[in-house]
Amino acid sequence: MASPNTEFMDEIAAYGGGEVKMCFQCGTCTASCPSGKLTSYRTRKLMRQAQLGLKEEAIGGEDLWQCTTCYACQERCPRGVPVVDIVIALRNIAVAEGHMFEAHKKTADALSKYGHAVSINDKVKKDRKDLGLPEIPPTVLANPKAKQDLDKILTITGFDKITG
Amino acid sequence: MAKSNKKYAFFLGCIAPLRYPGIEKSTRVVFEALGVELVEFEDASCCPAPGVIRAFNKKTWLAAAARNLAIAEKMGLEILTICNGCYGSLYDAAHELNNDKKLLAEVNEILAEIGMEYKGTTNVKHFAEVLYKEVGIEAIKAKITKPLDYKIATFYGCHFLKPSKIKDLDDPENPHMLDDLVEATGAKSVPRKQKTMCCGAGGGVRAGFPETATKFTLTNLENMKVSGAEFIVDVCPFCHLQFDAGQKGTGYAIPVLHLSQLYGLAMGMDAKALGVANHVTPVKL
Ligand code: SF4
Ligand code: SF4
Question: How far apart are alpha carbons A80 and B282 in whole angstroms?
Answer without folding.
Answer: 43
